[in-house]
């Protein structure tokens, strides 16, 4: 799938890693923030349209370090498949685990 020119919006958790979002804005994406709570990003699916991108840090959302709940992960996976949503999962620190494996998402 060619992302530039195909998708219209990138969705991300707020507060979050805005440098990546700004890069998408530079090539014409509209950035839509979704609040993060103790279960991770709380996506408003009414705003997410076919072809959009959801960017998330499912295991350690920066800066809160919360993990996306399994219920929200399952909902996002189902919605993404049904509505042709591209999901970018940024597991930015999994290579630094020494005493356990990353959470399977």
TrEMBL record:
Keyword Phosphoprotein attributed: no
Origin species: Candidatus Burkholderia pumila
Name assigned to this protein: Transcriptional regulator, GntR family with aminotransferase activity
GO molecular function: transaminase activity
Record's keyword annotation contains Nuclease: no
Upper lineage: Bacteria, Pseudomonadati, Pseudomonadota, Betaproteobacteria, Burkholderiales
UniProt KW keywords: Aminotransferase, Transferase
